[in-house]
Design a protein that fits this description.
There is one protein chain. Helices cover 88% and strands 0% of the residues. With 77 residues, the protein is mainly α. The longest helix has 53 residues.
């Protein structure tokens, strides 16, 4: 059973009666903000894991650079 054009018109009329024509843009904007926040929340869950994985690599490379510099100084001096 599919939704026909008359059912869609009936749903739109009921929505207009409940919310009123003046509030519809605000309701649509709030709905769009909610969807945007949901999507950003879902993508933020992945970002902290990758950021935490990269931090130890940066620290390791920095410590490796310090060790290499100390070896160079010892070899020169």
């Amino acid at each position: 059973m599919s939704i026909g054009p008359w059912q869609i018109i009936l749903i739109l009329v009921i929505v207009l009666i409940i919310f009123g024509a003046g509030k519809l843009p605000r309701v649509a904007g709030d709905l769009a903000k909610g969807i945007k926040n949901f999507k950003s929340g879902m993508s933020e869950d992945d970002k902290p894991e990758t950021a935490e994985e990269k931090k130890p690599e940066v620290l390791e490379s920095a410590s490796n650079n310090d060790k290499a510099e100390s070896k160079d100084k010892a070899a020169q001096g």
